[in-house]
Amino acid sequence: MKIYNNYILLFFILTNSAFAQSQADAYRKRMMDSIKNVYLIEAAIRNPALRQASITTDVTSGSNIENFVHGNKIFDGTMQVLRTSALFNVPVHQWGKNSISATFSAFQQRFHLSNITPYQPNLPDLEGKVFNKFTVGFTGTFLRVDSLFGHQVVYSASISGVTSRASSIQKLSYLGAVIFSLKQTPKVRTSVGLFINIDPSINVPVVPFFTYWRKLNNDLELNVNLPQQLTLRKGISPKLWATLGTSLSGSIAFFRHNQPGIPQDGNFSTIDLKTGPGIEYRFAKKFIFGLNAGFLTNLQSREFEVNSKANDYFLRNKVNPSFFGSFSVSVLPFL
Fold it and tell me: How far apart are CA 102 and CA 135, in angstroms?
């Protein structure tokens, strides 16, 4: 999760009159709300994670895949993947330096297998097999923005649940973060921090990160969010932007098995690296249409028992790089 905030402090000279005091307070609130909204929208234009809602569809071309279970090769063939995700962020409450928000998500995946060559006897016919998987999720987040040694610091704590069932949560995790701002000017922003992820499947619960944003000449922006993203962004017009970069993405799905020697409930997860150009176009004031394409490199494709460690996997896929295309529609903050 990426968390960014911009703050402006406004100071007013208040009159002694009670009526003037009331009018000044109301005017100040309207001004602060207006300015905060402008800064939030500008931040959301640069960072899709700050947008109110989004729908994204990713399509990958046929990738060569080799499947292994308990180290034994089961089959090879071609796999095409279609993924559609929807997110909706809702601010719940804000007081002082603190805020609470909620995020609702839905994720649909379609895996299509073809050109299958089996390597084990009695293997079910997988030629043309299609797997459809649907998951929903919820994340509640507490955020506090404060200062330390004269620098802005952000504290965050959240709880997240993901499931494909109506009766239970299949994956529950807790995330904490501390983000310390090192430098913040109109042209440069730098921060460092730590993410702590309490999750039964995570092997490394603590991850350091570094962010660097710089406004270059010719309306060019460099955005570095390590270890997740590296992007160059160029403004073509007030409503059109082009990007070039690489970013990490992941997916999760749950499978139910009835084969001997395989856990009944499996957690299938992938980690991919997307590299390529993209464009974003703002229309109807609050909407942004995005289009990306390039190469998708699979870094990890595993299935392990639910609530087990990710390195205790029983299934592994070796997936070759492929082309991908992605299009999205997102909404700038309006709540």
Answer: 17
